Amino acid sequence: MEVLAASDTELPEDGPDADAEAPPRPRKALTIGAVAKVLSQEFDDISISKIRYLEDQKLLSPRRTAGGYRLYSQADVERLTAILRMQRDEFLPLRVIRQELATGDFSKPRGGESSGVARRAMTVDASLGTLAGEELVEQAGVSESFLRELQEFGIVQPERREGRLCYDETDLEIVRAAAELSRFGVGGRNLRVFRSSADREAALLEQIVGASLRSRSQARRREAVENLESLAGICGHLKHLLLVRDLRRLTGE
């Protein structure tokens, strides 16, 4: 049997379509039962109730029929697949997943442990691993002089603990990105423009959520952190779009 796509006669959300076989990449709008069947090929614990819960958490927005039945497009299924993989493979909380979804393309396969490190590095309140300077230069594949240059211009800002400089996973990812740019002749001095831009964006977001972050209410502070990460993802996405627009002008497109 084929997966039952939405037709003129709508099926209940937990109707007989849940027992139908499904192609790996659905093209038509599917009911929630059909989506659960498609995803069960990869996720053993998927259920209709779990899909509804993710929708309640504002991670999904499927189309609704006049009768109130959910209809999922291929893009909805790909988004849901990405959410479930981030939960399973990287153990990311929903607030971090929400930020990740806001940053752009989530339909491509993700990179396991290295991807998890990168995601933690981009998360505001993640518990980060620490590295000594020699560990950082080894993992990033850069020289000690390159690291000192980045510190001199404020691109990397280590903490001093017990007389030693300590770096975290965010510093590691910053150094890796800077090393990629250095291949094109971009030095630490040139990177100050990114540092200045980040400072201005942080100041803007502090104006938006600063009062909530300082609240005595734990729930309000937790919500503020979630909002802060979502806003950071949206700002980063917007900045990338503005950059792409300007680069198109350079190419004459």
Rg for CA atoms: 22 Å
CATH architecture descriptor name of the largest domain: Orthogonal Bundle
The best one-word shape is globular
The unreliable regions are 7-23
Indicate the percent of residues in helices. 55-70%
Q: How much of the sequence is in beta strands?
A: 5-15%
Please, what is the average pLDDT? 81
Continuous helix count: 10
> How can the largest sheet be summarized?
3 strands, antiparallel
- Domain module tally: 3
Structural class: mainly alpha
What letter string, H or E per element, gives the SSE order? HHEEHHHEHHEEHHH
Distance between the termini: 48 Å
Total strand segments = 5
Strand order of the largest sheet: 3-5-4
What is CATH's topology name of the largest domain? Multidrug-efflux Transporter Regulator, Chain: A, Domain 2
Q: Give the class-level CATH name of the largest domain.
A: Mainly Alpha
